[in-house]
Amino acid sequence: MKSMMRKILFYNLLIVLVALTGCQKDLDLYVPEPSNPVDTWYTTVTNAMPVGELKTNLLLPVYKDSFDLDNTTVSIGTSSGLQVGFDPGAIATSSNVPVTGKIYIETHLLKKKGDMIRMGTPTTSNGRLLVSGGELYIRLKQNGNDLQILQQSQQTNGAHYSISYSDPQPSALMKLFNGDATNPVVFNWLPDLDTSNRINAQSGALAYMITTNQLNWINCDQFYDTTGIPRTIVSAALPANFTNANSIAFTVFNDMNSVVGMYGNATSRKFSSGKIPADKQITVVVISKQGNDYYLGHQQALTVGSSGTIGSQDITVTPVISSLDAIKAYLDTL
């Protein structure tokens, strides 16, 4: 009997030792929670965060071509319908020395609101709402170096080049704006104050014709007049794991060619627009990348506000898992 009890005690002790060993292995494999959980908001957003990869993956492919500039005027046509013309001597190095020979050109012509979202170029100028007649991007290079349009100096009078593209309803109210990308988070459009740069709405030809000495981002825009009308600030109410480290948000106007960026605030933990007109039909669009998954959410709403005050409203958006291709396809519909 005593022998049997000893055996039972021995086996019980053995079971306890095995259990303790297993617990120790579990402790050895324990991984503490990351110091930056998925619902953290940041005062400074960098391209190293998932949102940086998201923005890169949404970018539209640039149109690339080349041409030889010598003693005759050169005209370049793109698949988007953009026509660009250069006179001899109009293109120079960054040191303002005219160049000839083979020149490489990169262009965009953005007319859709979804394309403006993909390129991160919403239609606002110092917080004021713009209505776009087309956003353009033109870059020139030779031997891997960026070029410029010949600038005015003691030896030269400067130069311009021509741009044209079709539009079903060109407006004489449009003005030229130049893109300011110095803030990596907030893209801005600045009025072109150079009176030698001009835009002409060709109602008969259904086109815009532009003469300018500026490269890179150019916008054909007009300010939306908010004088005396109620305005409001729209915020996106999102699940906790959608933050400025992994998501982007925009307010899209349904009845005009306008897109407003909604920027994340680490204090309020919300994406919010600037001041926009009330009584407008909008769609709030949220896109996110978390791990290997993409998310898309969009919610229509009517902006509301009271005369004499700046209103505020939260729009609930619940993004769902999607694919990058599906997100691009949705943006094409805007």
What would you say this structure looks like, in words?
- The chain has 334 residues and is α+β, with helices and mostly antiparallel strands.
- It folds into two domains: 163 residues, Chondroitinase Ac, Chain A, domain 3 (Sandwich); 101 residues, Immunoglobulin-like (Sandwich).
- It has four helices and 23 strands.
- The strands form four sheets. Strands 1, 5, 6, 7, 8, 11, 12 and 15 form an eight-stranded antiparallel β-sheet that branches. The protein has an eight-stranded mixed β-sheet with strand order 22-16-19-18-17-20-21-23.
- The longest helix has 28 residues.
- It is globular and about 60 Å long.
What fraction of the residues are assigned to beta strands by DSSP?
A: 35-45%
- Please report the distance between the alpha carbons of the first and last residues: 85 Å
Report the biggest beta sheet as strand number plus sense, adding barrel if it closes.
Answer: 8 strands, antiparallel
Please provide the ordered H/E string of secondary-structure elements. Answer: HHEEEEEHEEEEEEEEEEEEEEEEEEH
Proportion of helical residues: 10-25%
Shape: globular
Instruction: Say how many strands there are.
Output: 23
